[in-house]
Each structure stands twice: as structure tokens, then as C-alpha cells.
Write a structure and sequence with these properties.
Blueprint lengths: L1 H14 L3 H23 L4 H25 L2 H7 L2 H6 L5 H37 L14 H26 L4 H27 L5 H6 L3 H23 L9 H5 L6 H27 L4
């Protein structure tokens, strides 16, 4: 594993200089500032709005970092032909892939820590300025422990997203890899909801709907039989990223259980491990 950590260190130093990270971090900071304005004009509790919006920003912009940096890691080595030099040394391909993966995760971990500190500052300010709060002590208006747990789960979400970025980058160009990865991220946010909607919908047969004159119901039923296989594929093949989203429970309650947190972490590690195994197998059979 020494070679894996050596490649991870080189990847960290290379990725930390990527300007796209700082551009994304800048826009994330701008959005956090706007969350304060959104809290001021909202009808509900300003503090809840700022907390929820801050956690959403961490998830979204963290995924953007994973997509834009992760999808180009392997491609850059192939395009610059530096991969020939690396693989000519006593370095196995799986060590190269895992080194890239852990190197990018370390960069994202550092970026997430920085955004966590910034978001906590904005949430603390919102707690200080919150009016009509049932908690008189403004320092106790935020469950900081659960807020930190929510951020940790967002990082585990990025563990899955980076693994997908590495998988797609091993079979496609950076642009297509970015499109595939970000699409998987967006679909993963709603896959469980879409699957639940399909399980609750009871379609009618086309003939029965036509006999009752319910043309709209017949159309929806026909579309159901066409879309249902696609929704099942999304649910079972793509990651269910809703496991990592505890924003509502952190801001509105009730607080999540430690069993939920542990199962979410276990799910993230298991899914990422399966994806990385597939990536290693594909990369091992790739000809340069």
C-alpha cells in the first residue's frame, strides 16, 4: 500500500493546485452569503433556512468538485502520456487507480472542512440574529453535533460520487464522464422517491381506461409500463444518495439515530468499493 499512498500524495499536490476547486469554492461562499438574505425574506424560521441551505450547498458544490476534478484524473495521465512512465515502474494498475481515488478524496476532505468552517460561521451568525426563537441562549439554538454528523455524511456521499467519476473517466472522455457522473448524482437524490411513487401508483389497463372515457388515465397508465423498468434500473443500479441527506432531520427534527448514520456510512463504503472494483477491472484490461 505504500505505492498507493505515494500516488495519493502526488495526486493531492496536483489537484490542490487546480483552479477549478477555488472557483467552485468561491461560488459556494457566495451562495452561503445569499442564504442569509434568503433567511431574512423567508416566512419560516431564518435559522432553519440557513442551516438547510448551507448543507445543500455543501452537498451540491462538493459534488461539483468531485465531478470536475475526478473525471479528468485518469484522462490527464493518458493524454499527457505520463501514465506510460508510471506503469513502467513497479506499480500495478490497481495501485494507480486507488492512489488517484484516495488522493482526490483527501483534497475533497480538506475542501469540505474549509466549507464546514465557513458554513458554521454563517449558521452561528443566523443563530445570533434569529428573532422570536424559543431558545433564549443563541449559542444553544443549533445542534452542532448533528450538524457535524450531517456534513460527515455528505463527505460519504462524495466518496460514492468520486468512485462514479473514476469509473466513468476510465471509459469515456472528461466531458462525457462529467455529464454521466453529475446525472448519476442528480438521479441519486430522487431515486428512492421516484421508486416510491411508482409503487403507490396503480395503473389501469388501456381497455378499461378507454371504456370509462378516462383518456388521461389511459395515457398515464401506458407511460407507467414504459417508464417503470427505467425507474427500477435507476433505483437498483444508481446509488441512493438520500441515505446521506439528513438536512430535514437536523434542522426540523427529530434527530436521526446512530443506526441510521452507521448504515448510511456502511452503504457508502460498500457501494464505492463495488464501483472501484469495477473501475480497477476495466482499467486493468485497458490498452494504452
Amino acid at each position: 500500500m505504500d505505492k498507493v499512498w505515494l500516488i495519493a500524495g502526488n495526486t493531492f499536490r496536483e489537484s490542490i493546485r487546480d483552479r477549478i476547486l477555488y472557483v467552485i469554492a468561491f461560488f459556494a461562499a457566495v451562495m452561503m452569503v445569499s442564504s442569509l438574505a434568503l433567511g431574512w425574506i423567508s416566512i419560516g424560521d431564518q435559522l432553519q433556512v440557513v442551516q438547510d441551505f448551507s448543507l445543500a450547498i455543501l452537498s451540491f458544490f462538493g459534488a461539483l468538485m468531485a465531478v470536475f476534478v475526478g473525471t479528468g484524473l485518469i484522462y490527464k495521465e493518458i493524454d499527457k502520456r505520463t501514465i506510460y512512465t508510471i506503469l513502467s515502474k513497479p506499480v500495478r494498475r490497481w495501485q494507480f487507480v486507488l492512489g488517484k481515488y484516495f488522493g482526490l478524496l483527501s483534497v475533497l476532505g480538506l475542501a469540505m472542512f474549509g466549507m464546514l468552517i465557513a458554513s458554521m460561521a454563517f449558521v452561528l451568525y443566523a443563530a445570533y440574529t434569529a428573532q422570536h426563537s424559543p431558545v433564549p441562549d443563541w449559542t444553544m439554538r443549533v445542534e452542532w453535533g448533528w450538524y457535524a454528523v450531517a456534513v460527515v455524511l455528505i463527505f460519504f456521499e462524495l466518496v460514492v460520487v468520486v468512485a462514479l467519476a473514476m469509473l466513468f473517466s476510465s471509459v469515456a472522455s472528461p466531458i462525457l464522464s462529467a455529464v454521466f457522473t453529475f446525472t448519476a448524482y442528480l438521479l441519486g437524490q430522487v431515486s428512492a422517491t421516484v421508486s416510491y411513487m411508482f409503487t403507490q401508483f396503480i395503473p389501469q389497463e388501456r381497455g378499461a381506461a378507454a371504456a370509462t372515457g378516462e383518456s388521461l388515465t389511459g395515457f398515464v397508465s401506458s407511460a407507467y409500463f414504459l417508464v417503470k423498468p427505467f425507474s427500477e434500473f435507476i433505483f437498483y443500479a444508481l446509488p441512493d444518495l438520500q441515505h446521506f441527506q439528513l438536512r430535514n432531520q437536523v434542522t426540523l427534527g427529530p434527530a436521526p439515530t446512530w443506526q441510521q448514520v452507521g448504515l448510511a456510512m456502511l452503504y457508502g463504503v460498500g457501494y464505492a468499493s463495488a464501483v472501484m472494483l469495477l473501475t480497477v477491472l476495466i482499467f486493468d484490461r485497458k490498452r494504452f
